[in-house]
Design a protein that fits this description.
Largest interface: A-B, 37 and 34 residues
Strand content of chain A: 15-25%
Oligomer: heterodimer
Number of domains of chain A: 1
CATH architecture of chain A: Alpha-Beta Barrel
Strand order of the largest sheet of chain A: 1-3-4-5-6-9-10-11
Largest sheet of chain A: 8 strands, parallel, barrel
Helix content of chain B: 25-40%
Number of strands of chain B: 13
Radius of gyration of chain B: 15 Å
CATH topology of chain A: TIM Barrel
CATH topology of chain B: Rossmann fold
CATH class of chain B: Alpha Beta
Largest sheet of chain B: 9 strands, mixed
Helix content of chain A: 25-40%
Chain lengths: 265, 203
């Protein structure tokens, strides 16, 4: 039985901005922005459109970039009042403290959690499990018939099973899993539903689907019972293929619960 | 002046910004004197109930809160802060401030926990907040409260069980959700509470 059907818990639609040194990578094209590269302005617009959360990923994650990110997070938290997750370059509890102190609600850890799984439990102990998102990049291994975890932005295979890693991360105190299908990422062919079912069936914490969204039907199918609780997407929103208000209306029409937002227009 | 009580319970910036958004003057403090002097108290909280109460008692903050609130000072408890307005807490176990009668228990394990995300609050007709329409607010919690007096329940939410998502008795309010993370509706609710503070100051 799904959480959606037996409660009013809404699905979540989460735009993700890739950021480097305080600038949105590739920019955003769907709306007249004063500055298409400013993540703060973008977050404010997505907030107004009814995004349920925001994710910022620092894709360079050098120390310079991380310091700039702290400023971006602070300015974003000053003007949007929905949950904000920040990932990229978070390697220690102190990095978490800096981001949360700047106004982030959650931190996402990926390669650093694989390298040091204790980081999950340490973060959960200090800040609570709800603050710790474990991000997993997974690719199907046709030879060995399992989803393999990759780190370092998808460059480094680990030989570890995504399903097993998700179970361990949850046991160590992850509050959510952000699961990206590398096979589908950037294809627009839809989320990897088999991967979502495999991980969703293995852990009892919320699962965020990422990688492959090309249209609203893809979001709806990923949000079906036994799959994901939330959908993350980047390019489909940034380039105006899909607008959040229409997406949420269609998701609601499909029978899933969405958070209603009163729009000005 | 609104005192945001700081006892090491995580991100206070969002709640502060939400209060400032309404023009409130705020101070983030762990000083019992400032708590005593403030016009209203925001009692936030994430984390473990017993660790929180241990810190609150050791620092003298819990006495400062209860004596202020017993004299009629408005308080808004958020998430764990709402739980700790009540008495016995299953988490720990420990005992909260006892400003409201009732206790905290774990969410039944029939659902994914924590209960995380946007869920509907239905406001109750008998309560001071009955003029508010049902809407979605942002939750992150694994425990719920069971008030002794049903009249203290201002709003309810369903997640496997139906539980009180907002409580209010006179000047004591608590939200199980995070109004500071609940978009425009949450900001509006914080505004309602600030109006209560203003009315009390004027009275």
């Amino acid at each position: 039985m799904s959480d959606q059907q037996s409660s009013n818990l809404a699905i979540r639609v989460i735009p993700c901005l890739d950021v480097t040194v305080g600038r949105v990578v590739k920019g955003v094209e769907f709306v007249n922005l004063r500055d298409a590269g400013d993540p703060v302005e973008m977050a404010a617009i997505y907030n107004r459109e009814g995004a349920d959360e925001m994710v910022f990923l620092d894709i360079t994650a050098t120390s310079d970039s991380r310091d700039t990110m702290i400023d971006v997070v602070r300015r974003t938290a000053d003007q949007i009042f929905i949950p904000l997750t920040v990932g990229g370059g978070i390697r220690a509890v102190q990095d978490m403290r800096n981001m949360l102190g700047a106004g982030a609600d959650k931190v996402a850890i990926n390669s650093s959690a694989i390298a040091n799984p204790e980081l999950i439990s340490q973060g959960a102990e200090v800040f609570g499990t709800q603050c710790i998102v474990v991000a997993i990049d997974a690719r199907w291994s046709p030879e060995d018939h399992y989803w393999e975890v990759y780190t370092h932005g998808g460059r480094k295979p680990t030989g570890q099973s995504a399903v097993e890693w998700a179970i361990e991360a949850a046991a160590r105190g992850a509050g959510e899993i952000l699961l990206t299908s590398m096979d589908r990422d950037g294809t627009g062919k839809g989320y990897d539903l088999d991967l979502l079912e495999a991980v969703g069936g293995a852990v009892n914490i919320p699962l965020i689907a990422s990688g492959g969204a090309g249209n609203t039907d893809h979001l709806i199918e990923a949000l079906q019972p036994g799959r994901a609780d939330a959908v993350l997407a980047a390019s489909i929103f940034h380039f105006g293929q899909l607008r959040i208000p229409e997406v949420k209306r269609e998701i609601a029409r499909s029978g899933l619960t969405v958070r209603r937002v009163r729009m000005d227009d | 002046m609104i005192a945001i009580i700081d006892y090491g319970a995580g991100n206070l910036r969002s709640i502060e910004r939400a209060l400032v958004h309404h023009g409130a003057l705020t101070v983030v403090t762990s000083d019992p004197d400032q708590i005593a002097k403030a016009d209203g108290l925001v009692f936030p909280g994430v984390g473990n109930a017993r660790m929180a109460m241990d810190r609150l008692r050791a620092s003298g903050i819990s006495d400062a809160i209860t004596s202020s609130v017993n004299k009629g000072k408005p308080i808004l408890g958020v998430c764990l802060g709402m739980q700790l307005l009540f008495g016995a807490q299953e988490e720990g176990p420990t005992t909260g401030l006892g400003l409201l009668q009732g206790h905290g228990v774990a969410l039944p394990a029939t659902r994914k926990t924590p209960h995380m995300g946007w869920n509907t609050v239905n406001f109750q007709q008998h309560n001071v907040l009955s003029h508010l329409d049902a809407g979605e607010y942002y939750f992150v919690h694994s425990y719920i409260v069971e008030p002794d007096d049903a009249r203290d329940i201002a709003g309810i939410t369903s997640y496997g069980v139906t539980f009180p998502s907002i409580v209010s008795r006179d000047h004591i309010w608590g939200t199980q959700f995070h109004p500071e993370k609940s978009g425009d509706l949450g900001i509006a609710l914080i505004g309602e509470w600030l109006e209560l503070v203003t009315r009390r100051e004027a009275a």
